[in-house]
């Protein structure tokens, strides 16, 4: 796959699986797969995070929008979901995280999550076999 001048290698990868693999050291023998648990938590939480962001943007609540974006940035980065982390960082650092730009960034987050979900689901499935 070639990289065009407008695409960085990060943009081509929905999830950096090396980040998930780095958690294998924390796996305790005989316990449920730690990475599967992290994936399950993330996939369950992100839609609620989006709902919170949407409400904060609609209510012009910049404090909540920044806090929620910060949380999303951290949890996404910790799982190697780098594009969502980057978009959440951009939202967190907007001068006004409740304007039109914020709504566009939320749409970008939702679009990227649609791309990320099947990758994480496949990794979860692979680890659950």
Structural summary, described in words:
This protein has 129 residues and is mainly alpha-helical. The chain has helices at 9-12, 17-21, 34-58, 62-79, 82-92, 100-128. The longest helix has 29 residues, at 100-128. It is elongated and about 45 Å long.
Short note summarizing the structure:
The protein is mostly helical. The chain has 6 helices and no strands.
Pick out its properties:
mainly alpha; 6 helices; disordered N terminus; 129 residues; 0% strand; single chain
SSE diagram, text form:
Elements: H1 9-12, H2 17-21, H3 34-58, H4 62-79, H5 82-92, H6 100-128
Q: How would a crystallographer describe the biggest sheet?
A: none
Instruction: Estimate the helix proportion, in percent.
Output: over 70%
How would you classify the helix and strand content by structural class? mainly alpha
- Overall mean confidence score, pLDDT: 86
In total, the number of strands is: 0
Order of helices and strands: HHHHHH
Please give the alpha-carbon distance between the first and last residues. 29 Å
Given as residue ranges, the uncertain stretches (5+ residues, pLDDT < 50) are: 1-11
How large a portion of the residues is in β-strands, by DSSP E? under 5%
Q: Helix tally?
A: 6
Shape: elongated
Gyration radius from CA atoms, angstroms = 16 Å
